[in-house]
Amino acid sequence: MSVNHGANLYELSAKYGFSKEDFMDFSSNINPFGSSKKAKQYVIDNIDMVSMYPDPEYVELKKSISTYCKCNSENIVLGSGATELISSFIGTVNPKKAVLVSPAYSEYEKELNKIGCEIKKYYSKKENHFEIDPKDLANTVKEGGYELLIICNPCNPTGFAFSKDQIREIVSTCGCYVMIDETYVEFTDTSKYSSTPLVDEFDNLFVIRGTSKFFSTPGIRLGYGLISNEKVKEAINKRLDLWNINVVASRMGEIMFVDDDFINETIEHMSKERDYLESELRFLPGVKVYNTYGNFVLCEIVDRRMTAEELRNELIPERIIIRDCASFDGLDEYFFRVCILKPEENILLISELKKIFG
């Protein structure tokens, strides 16, 4: 992974003499409690399925996603990870002008630049605690005649999230395509913050999700997009390869999207640990903590005693890696992000930060 996408554990292990497994990677926003045991056990028990082609229509996989997301199965497109779908959608709608809510994941801007799109960045601001007025955003897009609006919801790295009702207001007002990246929405209350049910209602809405973060399966490269616009959906599917989802990813998806025990336990564990981290971080002198709906917490060193890079370098010998957020457009060198890991690791992080900040 590039430095802009988190820590390179291979490089750090060679430099500091630790094994990759020794590091506590608080820069990685993947569910630390692992993936669905039911799905993994199915793969173990049915490993001979690797000699089979997947169903080219992925009927059962789409049925599971439809149940999970509360949308029509015919409105689902599948991709080899969320990033492939980001690229496919942007390339398909081919906007001349787009609004990008920032700071944000760098791949959105990268894909817009590939097609020569004019980009307006709509910045959330720290003086507003990174909260955004949906009416002002929608009016900015509409009045500027923009053809695409891109939102990460909840936003990485700020943690801010629009509610489903606010997204409905934005989509119905702005008059253009809206792409919502919901990579982190499953770590919060999806009934309030997820836009997936709105896809059946609006044909200018495209919602993207992946299984890397919440389901802790970055290795199977399974992503999915939801859109009811037949023309766009057909064009995206033409860009994708036949059997673009391998049989292991397909079968795991069929199981884990309806594995309620795994889903509920993950939400319970992550909510408890997020509350702990947020609460303890707020006690650190000279550190401001921003509210979050993701599985990460954005912090700012407000007393300027050190930069985030200096803090990161001080923690690495303790085998702790945090995310220096200076690479995010709109954040300066005093912002850092910590993701939620297991209880014992979260406790150790707080202990080390208390030593540094007093």
UniProtKB/TrEMBL annotation:
<dbReference type="GO" id="GO:0003824">
    <property type="term" value="F:catalytic activity"/>
</dbReference>
<dbReference type="InterPro" id="IPR015422">
    <property type="entry name" value="PyrdxlP-dep_Trfase_small"/>
</dbReference>
<dbReference type="InterPro" id="IPR015424">
    <property type="entry name" value="PyrdxlP-dep_Trfase"/>
</dbReference>
<feature type="domain" description="Aminotransferase class I/classII large">
    <location>
        <begin position="22"/>
        <end position="346"/>
    </location>
</feature>
<dbReference type="InterPro" id="IPR004839">
    <property type="entry name" value="Aminotransferase_I/II_large"/>
</dbReference>
<protein>
    <submittedName>
        <fullName>Putative histidinol-phosphate transaminase</fullName>
    </submittedName>
</protein>
<dbReference type="GO" id="GO:0030170">
    <property type="term" value="F:pyridoxal phosphate binding"/>
</dbReference>
<dbReference type="Pfam" id="PF00155">
    <property type="entry name" value="Aminotran_1_2"/>
</dbReference>
<keyword id="KW-0663">Pyridoxal phosphate</keyword>
<dbReference type="InterPro" id="IPR015421">
    <property type="entry name" value="PyrdxlP-dep_Trfase_major"/>
</dbReference>
